[in-house]
Amino acid sequence: MKQLKVFRSLVKDSFDVVTHGTVKYHIWMGFLTFMMLVGMYCYSIQLNEGLSVTGMTDRVSWGLYISNFTFLVGVAAAAVMLVMPTYVLHDVDFKQAVLIGEGLAVAALIMCLAFVIADMGGPSVLWHMIPGLGVFNFPNSMLTWDVIVLNGYLFLNITIPFYILFRHYQGKEAKSKVYVPGAILSVFWAVGIHLVTAFLYQGLQARPFWNNALLGPRFLASAFAAGPALIILVLAIIRNFTAFKIEDKTLKKIAMVVTVAAQINLIMLISELFKEFYAPTHHSESAYYLFFGLHGKDALLPWIWTAIPLNVLATVLLTFHKLRNNPKILYFSCFILFVAIWIEKGFGLIVPGFIPGPYGKIAEYTPTGVEIGVTLGIWALGAFVFTVLAKTAIGIELGELRFKNNKN
Question: Which regions span the lipid bilayer (predicted)?
Answer without folding.
Answer: 25-43, 64-84, 96-118, 148-166, 178-201, 221-242, 254-274, 300-320, 329-352, 372-394
